[in-house]
Amino acid sequence: IIKNLCDLKKLTVLGHGNGGTVYKVYHKKNHSFYALKVLRFNKNAIGIRQPATLEAEILKRVDSPYIVRCHAVFDNGTCIEAENGGDISFVMEYMEVGSLHDVLRQHHRLREEVISVLAKRVLEGLNYLHGMHIVHRDIKPSNLLVNDKGEVKIADFGVSHVVEGRFEGSDSNAGTCAYMSPERVDPERWGGENADEFAGDVWSMGVVMLECLLGHFPLIGPGQRPDWATLMCAICFAEKLEMPEKASPEFQNFVRRCLEKDWRKRATVSELLHHPFVKRNWCCSSGLGDYVLQG
Ligand code: ATP
Ligand code: MG
């Protein structure tokens, strides 16, 4: 449906990321809004084209209600010898409410019944991706987007990885270290060499769910500086989890199963989909509901 980048009118900037900028755009012929992610390359950064191509490859193949849809990919950079190397642009469905990071900034923290719905959707998304041999590797609040129906979807495959070479993959070890699993932060100590890569996504999701209930990043104290050394110590060595007193036993168990330091003991996505905390699904809705939408 979207044949030409020129049909899109840039309106505002929705976000800046590592590799590029995301714009809210208007399609003049379809009379609809989309999000346009533009990754820029220059001559000296040819190396980062490969992951970008993988991100495009992944986005073109995934088709799930739990993943942000990509309607078109424009690759103007086939000529990497060119002065500017060119851009890759992704036309994605526009997620009106923004990211879970924005939602948390506004609401400070979420209620358990909302987190239960959120967890279910993220797990369904991960279940789908893992079934396609795709590890997301960057699950964090700013990569979980919310639309005006309150539906949460997984976005941003910038550092994702395809296991077992289903299609050409990059092996970059990037990603936000705050949400990284112990086996990725310290592979030697936590048996990361032969770790099940999918377990890393489960860890990150657990951190996000606990953050939603606490209202701040959970692994370090609110006053602590989130530098690499502090985070690494917290992820790899901290024995106790900060858990809200009023958290239900189901929630506590759910998070503990995700934040099992040893990836061999950590729950899998399919186990978690049957967890009482997720099954409970109090509000029986597919979205976060009025709670999030009303602001
Ligand atoms: P980062 O490196 O910070 O993860 P990134 O360059 O990989 O960022 P994205 O995560 O894809 O880029 O997008 C950055 C931000 O832009 C998101 O956190 C979100 O706020 C906004 N954004 C991205 N895609 C959409 C979308 N489809 N609809 C609405 N907002 C979006
Ligand atoms: Mg991102």
TrEMBL record:
Top-level taxonomic group: Eukaryota
Record flagged with keyword NAD: no
Gene Ontology molecular function: ATP binding; MAP kinase kinase activity; protein serine/threonine kinase activity
Family to which the UniProt record says this protein belongs: Belongs to the protein kinase superfamily. STE Ser/Thr protein kinase family. MAP kinase kinase subfamily.
Full-sequence range covered: 57 to 351 of 351
Catalytic activity, EC: 2.7.12.2
Catalysed reactions, semicolon-separated: L-tyrosyl-[protein] + ATP = O-phospho-L-tyrosyl-[protein] + ADP + H(+); L-threonyl-[protein] + ATP = O-phospho-L-threonyl-[protein] + ADP + H(+); L-seryl-[protein] + ATP = O-phospho-L-seryl-[protein] + ADP + H(+)
Protein name stated in the entry: mitogen-activated protein kinase kinase
